[in-house]
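This part of the workshop introduces the protein records we will be handling. The structure tokens are whole numbers drawn from a learned vocabulary of backbone shapes. The record below serves as our worked example for the rest of this section.

===
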Amino acid sequence: MLSPVVNLPKDQRRLLRLYAGLNEQRRASLQAFAEFLSQQQEQNDPGSQSASQETLQPEDIPRPQEESVVAAMRRLTKTFPMIDRDALLDKATSLMTAHMLQGQPAPEVIDELEVLFHEHYEIYLKKNAE
């Protein structure tokens, strides 16, 4: 009997090989980024958007004393579900990369992510006010 992995398309098999070669922290980062992209796609799917055009308020999810960058992305995504994630993608990716590959301290990256999400929430408010 063939392994289920053999039946996967080539790009998915490659992704699994890359994932297998990562340490636990980088695997968690990759999973968080994949979740971010998935949520972004769901948000952009016209069938998944509500018909309501009312302005949404951010969820009140406090920042924990100790938090990883991955956990911060999850928290901020839940805090600001109304934000257009396409607009965040490049900057959020570069911030996560700065942490994972260049060793920028997590608290600094999280501070920058919070600023980024708040800026995009302000853009959202301006668009809904028009």
The radius of gyration is 17 Å. Residues 10-42+64-129 form one domain. The CA atoms of residues 45 and 51 lie 13 Å apart. Residues 46-52 have pLDDT under 50 and may be disordered.
